[in-house]
User: What shape does this take?
Amino acid sequence: MDLTGGPALARTPRPDTVPHPRPTPPPSQAPAPDTRRGTRPGQGPGPAPGTRTEPDATPRTEPESETETDPDTTVRTTVRAETEPGGVKAGVDPIGTGAGAGVRARARTRTGGEAGARPGAGSGAEAEPPAVPRPVVTELRLSAYGGRRGATYPLGPVTLFTGPSGSGKSTVLGAYEALARLGAGDPLAEVFPDPAAHVPESARPDSQGRRGFRIGCTVDGPAGPVRLDLAVQAEPELRIVGERLTRHGRTLLTTALRDPGRSTVQAAWLTAGTTPVTRAPLPDDLLGTALLPLRVAGATEGQREVLAAAEQTVVGLRSLFPCGPVPDRMRAPVLPGEGRLLRDCGNLAEVLHRTHNACPRRHQRFAAVAGAGCAGPVTGVGVQRLPDGTVRALLARGTRPATPLGRLGDGELRYLALALTLLTGPGVLAMDRIAEVPDAMQCLTLLTDDLDRGLDARQTAALLALTTAIAADGHIRLVGSAGAEAAAQARRTEGVTVVDLTP
Assistant: This one.
């Protein structure tokens, strides 16, 4: 299939891909930190059963070619996997490229300039741009996904997608969340419970009844722009049939479905040195890029490049918190607990109870911005413990009686919930934390659909101002969708990128 991409991380691999422990390499050759989820103690990277490396450093072409099918078309293509000293090369065009596939969304910042340039595009001989200190997703690609084909969307520190109903705003955000979950090690079936819904309507099955979709992203960071492209077969059986990980035009990992009767794909990743390429099977229900730290020792320059690119991609994808406040679930008192904000923000009072006691600075800052989105004077945000052991949050009104949050309007509650997510970090959000990477080296991205739902113009302006001020520090980004009025207001706000999906 015309599907290739990169490795996966998190979750224990299947028995046929479990790596054997290897001696720890010298400090100068130590592998990158393991950011996968669920690593077993004492388990280090190394070769696994079925892994083989090429014994020579000369270019080599596989003696056999496999005839594969692009899952969203009936055109059959022959895929050749080749190796050369400069990297792994596949004999097909990269996923999401080719004739007619180059649609780039109109993205404009306040200055009116177009933000559609793809970071890191071009040959490896070009001068490298300055390194981004923390891994962040800077581009989404929907090559063939839902109603989008050949679409590329740039992502800035604050990015809002806008367009009429049915233009694909939720589709784009859903693709981002799907990639993030795969990067965290979630199985394919959990990420796409209804895979057929993501296949383009125009996709026609091949002679074997196969159809699918393709998505990808670019993650920028200390290693420079790294591209991940993924091809998924949705029918008749859900599986990853191709993955490709590239950096500065060089392919670091590529996978392809060779035997439909097996639940694996054949992977090849750059090794360099006396063993230029390593080949091994990987599970077809997990992202290969996230599995690379289990398989690559980091003993050669090529291996270290692969590890750096894979780790950066996984960290950038996993640093995502989808937030969709539901006001009706935020009004009732709740029992105090761990104090980590849920996706629907239904435990807002519990989190405020925690921040009030454990994070006084954040709580004071939150109280300071609460007045910008709530009617009437606000002099503080307090928490009251009730006789039944539950807690509820209150808005202090100076000399007036305090107002329980349960009496606030939907727009006020959504404003407060979104403001709280911006003012907190991964430790206060119910998300999969990357404990192996220091917080200072991570950048959290908030993902929210219908950012302006229920908000008036004043609340929207206050929320946008807060978002851009916090995003300027480089630790938090926001990607969301908004209606026409909020998008017009965002275009007038410094630091906001608006991507118009209007056909």
In short: Residues 42 and 414 are 45 Å apart (CA to CA). The first helix runs from residue 169 to 183. The chain has nine helices and 25 strands. Residues 1-46, 54-85, 90-104, 108-126 have pLDDT under 50 and may be disordered.
